[in-house]
Write a structure and sequence with these properties.
Elements: E1 6-11, E2 24-30, E3 36-41, E4 58-63, E5 72-78, E6 86-91, E7 98-103, E8 127-132, E9 141-147, E10 153-160, E11 166-173, E12 185-190, E13 199-206, E14 210-219, E15 222-232, E16 243-247, E17 256-261, E18 265-271, E19 278-285, E20 294-299, E21 308-315, E22 324-332, E23 338-347, E24 361-366, E25 383-390, E26 399-410, E27 416-430, E28 441-446, E29 459-473, E30 480-484, E31 490-494, E32 510-515, E33 521-524, E34 530-535, H1 553-560, E35 574-575, H2 578-581, E36 586-587, E37 592-612, H3 614-620, E38 627-645, E39 674-677, E40 684-685, E41 691-696, E42 705-712, E43 720-721, E44 724-725, E45 728-729, E46 746-762, E47 772-780, E48 786-793, H4 800-807, E49 813-814, E50 821-823, E51 829-831, E52 840-841, E53 844-847, E54 857-859, E55 864-872, E56 878-889, E57 900-911, E58 923-930, E59 939-946, E60 968-971, E61 975-978, E62 991-999, E63 1010-1019, E64 1023-1032, E65 1040-1050, E66 1055-1062, E67 1069-1077, E68 1090-1097
């Protein structure tokens, strides 16, 4: 809940005023300035005021058992009759409706009855209660602890009844403990194991100088005892009064327990999330405090997402007259180290009593100054309300009673400062100080007027291994082709594809970042957490409740998945120093990617009672959608930095094909998502001697310039839907894109610190084949990435006639096939005839019914648009181009050509040639719709064939069926069609492991490729989108990532095989190859995700 809280307090009548047994109550409504509006509250409760019995035992709590838009007020008391029944009363402040009072009992004849105290003048807390959604149904239950049968502590859980009243959900008699000597008890609830359901903690007093804390879980309608913890203190007094509370003090997502007892002793108890066993972690003692009464509360005072503890303790000035109340504040670090940040006596006029009479005050925490509207936002930290019976300004011996409330706010150093005080004078006579008992005070906080934002159980969605680019460094545009040379001879002509290792004599044509002070790329995650409002699953609604942070919820959900989320921006900072990356940031034979792979967790909470209706849409226009309003929060996690070549990751699909200049734009305006160009314009030529060209930032100066970009999440992977997360069944269909709901999420920035730009080193090339190229760096509008790109113009040089004579006679229909040419050393290239990846293509996309990418697995019955980019690598326009798209029942493997079936053949009306007069790109899309109905449980590879019937003449050697043809290809990742039941895959209790690793040889000769075949298996549950990383060396010690393969889906008990080449040129010696399965959420273990195979490269 994100609260704008109110306060309720109850005061029992005087002990000996038997004519007046009605429980008095007041509701306090603070505004944004903490000014109070006070309302009298009559709960209709007649208390048992017998001197020898119960003296007005009362407990109170707030929650939402029958209400949805606001909190109701609950009172537990003892019936004013001889049966001593435990009574419950519920009051709805919004409607004025009251349920009860009525006794707590079950249809089987069991009734809750409170035992008669045996030493009444020491009477403390015999009843306590708390609210919590124990059974996960979205409604609160009331947990009551009381002095029960045979003086044993007893628990009863009261729930929403079928008839709309109250029913007993479960009850438990704690026979392992006996309350004697008028000992007190206290109860609280908390999520101690992080499963999303609350457990119960009970504190009881023992006569052997002990505090006992008992922990219970609720399973299947039964209360089950999990652990007991006994804490001894030699200063313990027989009439001590205790209290207990729970909160997430260390920010790990699981609640801890705090208890206060004799002499204001504070005990911090940690709970094992697996076993629910308790451990005393810390304790503190205030030696100046008395042993009479203590009250404790937890909450986020400073808005940092972790809870603090406030304790109120009763003290004595002299002669055992306990008229002082002190407040202490405790803060905790991530290791549960405890620091007292404040300790002060704040009240000196507590109603004077004798004989150790307790319970004249109480404290509660809440967000009392929140102003939940679009004009003013209150602070996100909580405040403390102290309510007590006072004697100040009236005769302390015999006069009218007074009821006082004070509100304290936290200072920056977690001190307290009093913000408000108000007194209510009662019209009844309080007898002299000689009376044994003070009037008892109980207090609670809740949202009585429904202006808080209350969140229901969430859906937990995960985008796994989301590629978050920092930079894309494209190699210079190069050209190699089967074409006529300057003499007119058809041959494999390497015009400019040269990429020898830097520092050698081999010819090299590459680009790199140029930095004046050797500082390279720094990437910073600007927002570790984001939240936004939305309706349904794909549209953001501008409905602002003015809440800048959502404290408390984050801590709750972290432990629910057993996952660690970043709380501080600083923890995400990554700086790639020149010693690590400077050498590697050279795009030599491929585009070079610097990116971060991370899981993005989405938690979508329905806002209870808030919907977007037609009237709202009338005001907001066409983008409005009707439906349930939700709040969505995203948490990036599991950040992994990668530097790798672009060809080895299928999801990197640039327009250009490395090694063919006709795939590049000739005009920068043809570039998709072109943002601000960051460098000065320059054009260079490939002919002539070797040279180094420098492309500098605009306004760089002599010292360089820091260039930064902001980027937003670019969602192009699927969303996995959990099974039961926080006890919420999330088996609904969820779309895999949230463009609008994430429109405010700035996830990272890329900074080039004092960089001069890029430099391009050009080897000496033959002037007869020269072409012009213009490098520049721009900001990608879609991703925010700083991206190196080039435009190309082969007609702007003296070699233009050669280019025209070869590429202006016939078209060259093509797909983007970056593996058609192969090289062992980067200098000498040859056609990759019969090669494993010869026909593996870039430029094929899977889209859902909304034309959005969804990843590589989809539910059966959902249509998939398969979209392929088709090129014309010539100056000649071409018309009526047929494109056939086929499916194949198999994992994508170029050696298997059977099981193919035609999905559809479409016709592209025209594809214009390179440098056409219309300035249009020389490529178009062909798209078909793939019907997944009846295709569940299989992988489908997709093949694209351009001009399948060979009706269009093409450049010699490039035509359909010829050796150098480039018009047939397949996409490297298959599509998996899921059964509809797969939507309920849980995010836990499964495992991925290596079943088998096969090397084509362990002792290759230098220059020969080693084929690595890795089979990955799934155990216990299905897995979507598993990545397999291939490193030369230990990745934790700088090992080089040389390939990444994405597995779209593995069924439980099934397996999937990926194959990659390992190049051995220049690698003589022994190499430990690390094959790593990317860690998935909820795996049993990650210890089996890595396997090592050794290769010995021979000369």
């Amino acid at each position: 809940m994100m609260h704008d809280d109110e306060i309720v307090g109850f005061l029992t009548p005087p002990q000996l005023d038997f004519a007046e047994a009605t429980l008095r109550g007041w509701m306090f409504y603070p505004d944004g300035s903490l000014d109070l509006t006070t309302h009298d509250l009559d709960m209709g409760v007649d208390l048992n005021m017998s001197l020898l019995n119960f003296f007005g035992l009362t407990a109170t709590a707030t929650g939402r058992m029958h209400t949805t838009d606001n909190d109701a007020i609950f009172v537990c008391s003892v019936a004013n009759d001889s049966y001593n029944y435990l009574m419950i009363t519920e009051y709805d402040p919004a409607t004025g409706r009251r349920r009860g009072p009525h006794p707590v009992g079950s249809p089987d004849g069991w009734w809750a009855s409170v035992s008669t105290p045996n030493l009444n003048h020491y009477l403390g807390r015999y009843i306590d209660c708390a609210t919590s959604d124990i059974d996960g149904n979205g409604q609160d239950e009331l947990v009551i602890a009381y002095h029960g049968q045979d003086d044993h502590p007893q628990l009863v859980i009261v729930a929403h009844g079928w008839t709309g009243d109250h029913t007993v959900y479960a009850h438990y008699l704690e026979t392992g403990f006996t309350l004697d000597h008028d000992k007190s008890l206290a109860v609280t609830t908390g999520d101690f194991d992080g499963d999303g359901d609350d457990e119960i903690a009970l504190a009881v007093e023992d006569h052997n100088l002990l505090l006992a804390v008992l922990l219970y879980d609720v399973e299947g309608g039964n209360i089950i005892k999990k652990d007991s913890l006994w804490i001894q203190d030699s200063r313990y007094k027989p009439w001590n009064r205790l209290d207990i509370a729970s909160g997430d003090m260390d920010g790990d997502g699981n609640d801890e327990i705090v208890a206060t007892s004799s002499y204001h002793r504070i005990d911090l108890i940690d709970v094992n999330a697996t076993t629910l066993n308790m451990t005393l972690k810390q304790y503190a003692v205030n030696p100046s405090a008395a042993y009479i009464d203590n009250h404790i509360a937890t909450g986020d005072l400073d808005g940092d997402g972790d809870d603090e503890v406030v304790v109120a303790c009763q003290k004595s000035t002299k002669d055992n007259i306990f008229d002082l109340v002190g407040l202490d504040v405790f803060d905790f670090d991530n290791n549960l180290g405890m620091t007292k940040t404040y300790s002060k006596d704040v009240v000196s006029d507590l109603r004077k009593t004798l004989s150790y009479s307790p319970v004249g005050f109480d404290i509660v925490m809440g967000n009392f100054d929140a102003k939940i509207d679009e004009t003013q936002m209150g602070d996100i930290g909580m405040e403390v309300a102290l309510v007590y019976r006072t004697s100040k300004d009236i005769d302390g011996w015999t006069s009218h009673g007074a009821f006082r409330i004070q509100i304290y706010d936290a200072t920056t150093d977690l001190g307290l400062t009093k913000k408000k005080e108000e007194t209510i004078v009662q019209n009844d006579i309080v007898l002299s100080i000689g009376q044994y008992f003070a009037q008892k005070v109980v207090v609670a906080a809740g949202d009585f007027d429904g202006d808080s934002v209350v969140l229901g159980e969430p859906d937990h969605l995960v985008i796994e291994s989301h590629p978050d680019f920092s930079a894309v460094i494209a190699e210079p545009p190069k050209h190699i082709d089967y074409i006529k040379d300057i003499k007119g001879t058809l041959c494999e002509l390497n015009v400019s594809r040269k990429g020898g290792s830097p520092g050698t004599t081999a010819q090299t044509f590459y680009s790199q970042y140029q930095d004046s002070n050797a500082a390279d790329i720094e990437t910073t995650d600007k927002s570790g957490t984001d939240y936004g409002w939305g309706v349904q699953t794909d549209v953001e609604i501008e409905k602002d409740f003015g809440i800048p942070k959502i404290g408390g919820i984050k801590a709750k959900i972290e432990a629910s998945a057993g996952y660690d989320y970043s709380k501080k921006q600083e923890t995400w900072n990554k700086s790639y120093q020149s010693t690590e990356v400077g050498k590697e940031l050279k795009a030599i034979n491929d585009d070079y990617l610097v990116y971060r792979a991370k899981d993005i967790h989405i938690w979508r909470y329905p806002v209870i009672g808030e919907t977007q209706v037609e009237a709202d849409c009338d005001q907001q226009g066409e983008n409005c959608k009707e439906g349930q309003l939700y709040v969505q929060m995203t948490f990036p996690s599991d950040l992994i930095v990668h530097n790798t070549e672009g060809r080895v990751v299928e999801w990197y699909q640039p327009v250009h094909e490395n090694g063919n200049i006709f795939s590049y734009p000739w005009d920068k305006n043809q570039i998709e998502n072109l943002g601000a160009i960051k460098t000065l314009p320059n054009s260079f030529y490939t002919g002539g001697n070797e040279a180094t060209y420098y492309i500098t930032w605009t306004n760089a100066g002599t010292e360089g310039r820091e260039v930064s970009t902001d980027k937003k999440v670019n969602v192009d992977a699927s969303v996995s839907v959990g099974g039961e997360i926080l006890n919420a069944e999330t088996n609904v269909t969820v779309k895999g894109h949230y463009d609008k709901t994430w429109s405010s999420l700035n996830t990272s920035e890329t900074t080039n610190s004092q960089s001069l730009g890029i430099s391009i080193f050009k080897a000496p090339f033959d002037t007869n084949y020269a072409y012009q190229f213009s490098p520049f760096i721009y900001e990608n509008n879609a991703t925010g990435v700083l991206q190196v790109d080039h435009t190309v113009n082969p007609l702007a040089t003296t070699a233009h006639e050669w280019w025209k004579s070869n590429y202006n006679q016939f078209p060259d229909l093509a797909l983007n096939l970056p593996f058609r040419w192969n090289s062992a050393d980067g200098v000498d290239w040859e056609f990759n005839e019969g090669g494993l990846n010869l026909q593996k293509m870039k430029g094929l996309f899977f889209l859902d019914s909304d034309e959005k990418p969804f990843g590589y697995s989809i539910e059966e019955g959902k249509p998939v648009t398969v979209k392929a980019r088709v090129y014309n690598y010539s100056f000649v326009d071409v018309y009526d181009v047929e494109v056939k798209i086929e499916g194949q029942y198999d994992e994508c493997n170029a050696t298997k050509t059977d099981n193919r079936f035609e999905i559809d053949t479409v016709t592209i009306p025209s594809i214009q040639g390179f440098e056409n007069a219309s300035n249009n790109p020389n490529w178009e899309y062909a798209e078909v719709v793939f019907d997944t109905t009846g295709r569940a449980g299989k992988y489908y590879c997709f093949w694209v064939t351009v001009d399948p019937d060979n009706t269009i003449p093409e450049i010699t050697g490039h035509d359909t069926g010829e050796k150098y043809a480039n018009n047939e290809g397949y996409f490297g990742i298959p599509l998996f069609v899921e059964a509809q039941s797969a939507l309920e895959i849980p995010l836990s209790d499964g495992d991925l492991f290596h079943e088998e690793i096969i090397l084509s040889t362990e002792n290759p000769i230098e220059g020969k490729e080693v084929m690595i075949s890795a089979t990955v298996s799934a155990m216990d549950r299905d897995f979507r989108h598993a990545s397999v990383y291939f490193y030369d060396g230990d990745p934790d010690e700088g090992g080089e990532l040389f390939d990444i393969e994405l597995i779209p889906y593995i069924v439980a008990g099934g397996s999937y095989t990926v194959s990659v080449p390992y190049k051995t040129y220049g690698k003589v010696g022994t190499h430990d190859l690390h094959i790593v399965i990317g860690e998935k959420i909820g795996e049993h273990t990650h210890t089996n995700n890595t396997i090592i195979r050794t290769v010995n490269v021979l000369e």
